[in-house]
Amino acid sequence: MKLFATVTNEANEWLPGVVFLRGGSVAILMILRPSDAHDERLVIMTEQPRIAAGSLQFMEIPAGMLDDEDNFAGAAAREIKEEVGLELKGSDLIDMTKLAVKGHRAPENLRSAMYPSPGGCDEFISIFLWEKEMDRLQIENLKGRLTGERAEQEKIIVRLLDYERLLEVGARDGKTLAAWSLYEYLKRTGEIP
User: Fold this and answer.
1) Right CATH number for 23-188 from 1.10.3880.10, 3.40.190.10, 3.20.20.60, 3.90.79.10?
2) With 50 as the cut, is the pLDDT of residue 151 above it?
3) Which DSSP string corresponds to 107-149?
4) What is the per-residue pLDDT for 23?
5) Is the model's pTM score more than 0.90?
6) Is 49 exposed, middle or buried (0-12, 13-18, 19+ CB in 10 A)?
7) CB-side exposure of 47: number of CA atoms within 13 Å?
8) Any idea where the domains of the chain sit in the sequence?
9) What does the pLDDT read at residue 89?
10) Which of 47, 130, 138, 176 is the most buried (most CB within 10 A)?
């Protein structure tokens, strides 16, 4: 939805604006560690058409819109089951955006999430981490799967990428770039073991 607005605060200051209302969403950085090689890290990516970007094969981390329940972990788990075919427990997810901003209190009612385009859109994205050790055969079986609720129409293909190549492929996607940044920061500060 697009709307024209005039925003005011308690001091009677105001700003005119045009806003695109989209709502909240979730994204998950999924890192798999093969049980036979603990130093190896693979990232689950989805390849799918993104018409606004002019691409039929856009690579990004799994993501999706929140539902009416506004339950971040639950929505994230449902998206992963749909896009990747894995069932996740909400308790296995780490909300990296919430963890990163926990020491900063915003003077306004902002979500503990990333706002990709706050100048024109209300969308906020909670970025989660799911890191798991898995048998190599199970990992190999994920590669190249055509998934999605309407697989033939959505054409979502599961791709596995070496973590060290993540930015080479995923830097075009803001969610992937933000997830990598949060992961690296939280690992460096010891917030994520």
Assistant:
1) 3.90.79.10
2) no
3) SS---SSB-S-TTTB--EEEEEEEEEEE-HHHHHHHTT-EEST
4) 86
5) no
6) middle
7) 12
8) 23-188
9) 82
10) 176
